[in-house]
Amino acid sequence: MSGLAKRIVNKVLPRPVATRLWSEAQFRERVARLPLGVPERHKLRGELVISLTSYPARYATLHLTLRSLLRQDTAPDRIVLWIARDDVAALPKKTREVLDRGIELRIVEDARSYKKLIFAIPAFPEAYLATADDDVFYRPDWLTDLVAGQSDNASETPVITCHRAHRLGEQGPQHLIPYHDWEWDVQDPAARVPCANLMPTGIGGILYPPGSLHPDAVRRDLFETYAPSADDLWFYWCARRAGTLYRKVGGRFDQTAWWSSQKERLYDHNQRENDLQIAALVRDFGNPLRMPASAGGKAATVDR
Q1: Interior CA angle at 28 toward 27 and 30, to 5°?
Q2: Which domains does the chain have, with CATH numbers?
Q3: CA contacts within 13 A on the Cβ side of 25
Q4: Which of 81, 126, 219, 290, by CA, is between 20 and 30 Å from 71?
Q5: Distance of alpha carbon 172 from alpha carbon 57, whole angstroms
Q6: Are 107 and 85 in contact, with CB atoms under 8 Å apart?
Q7: pLDDT in tens, the chain (304 residues)
Q8: pTM for the whole thing?
Q9: E strand map for 1-114
Q10: 258 pairs with which residues across the strands?
């Protein structure tokens, strides 16, 4: 990373982010060293779907992320890539070759990063949806850890599992502490039991059980109003409105990304923008830390 890029990161990010950057050659070298075993079948009560999206600025290395998802120790039932209609023609040959190995391409309307989940929920309503980012290397045990954090007790309230999360706090019933002051990338024991005060970050991957999000999660009129640039915030509020809790799994998530994909990511942490979106979410939907834990997404929908 250049000196200018480092200065941008230090200025823009509210906390330093330790991301290892690989070239394609380094990916090939490192992955070649990983043992490739026979993937095991999961024991979840529904279908297991890995869901992700991408766009042309990330296409040059998208095939690398897809290849890492094809090498998981736990076999998903599907891997689905959601691409905006106007972006399909630009998919490079390397990506199309990986798609031929068993990844489903589904063409949808553009909804930016929200594409990885809002179309999967109605398409696979009884499935466990594991979301991934398009510019990250996922180790072979990535999906195994997410699945292992799920309960095998059908009577328990669904819990969303994640590899990386921040802990939020409140300043009274109607105010959360500023985003900058959240506890970032928590690793303590309190994060490893179901709790309300963890917000997962998409880069680490998140596993959503069926019914774990409020029905409003897929409403474009709402998420474009309240969280147009922060899908993590929107889905966190939708989970809390449904009474769903979160649990972190695995060790510290090893953030390994591709050199050419990080031009966009340098600017994706805007503290002021996040705080404005958080304030609007608290104002109209409530304090997520004070929402009860209960199954089924039974909170009232918003009439707009």
Answers
A1: 65
A2: 3-286 (3.90.550)
A3: 0
A4: 126
A5: 41
A6: yes
A7: 343 443 333 333 334 345 666 666 776 666 656 666 678 999 999 999 999 999 999 999 999 999 999 999 999 999 999 999 999 999 999 999 999 999 999 999 999 999 999 999 999 999 999 999 999 999 999 999 999 999 877 667 789 999 999 999 999 888 999 999 999 999 999 999 999 999 999 999 999 999 999 999 999 999 999 999 999 999 999 999 999 999 999 999 988 887 555 554 433 457 789 999 999 999 999 999 999 987 444 444 444 4
A8: 0.87
A9: 19-22, 40-41, 48-53, 74-75, 78-84, 104-108
A10: 22
Q: Give the number of other Cβ atoms within 10 Å of residue 107's Cβ.
A: 13
- Work out whether the CA dihedral 82, 83, 88, 90 comes out positive or negative: negative
Q: How many residues does the chain have?
A: 304
Give residue for tokens 């809390």: 240
Q: What's the CA gap between 262 and 58, in Å, rounded?
A: 9
Q: Across the chain, where does the E strand assignment appear?
A: 19-22, 40-41, 48-53, 74-75, 78-84, 104-108, 128-131, 159-162, 165-167, 198-200, 206-208, 245-248, 255-258
Residue 117 backbone phi and psi in degrees, to 5: -130, -35
State the CB neighbour count (10 A cutoff) for residue 226.
Answer: 21
244: nearest Cα among 279, 278, 280, 217: 217
108-113: long-range contacts (C-beta < 8 A, 24 or more apart)? 108/82, 108/83, 108/84, 109/84, 109/85, 110/84, 110/85, 110/86, 111/84, 111/220, 112/55, 112/231, 113/53, 113/202, 113/231
The strand pair at 78-84 and 104-108 is best described as parallel
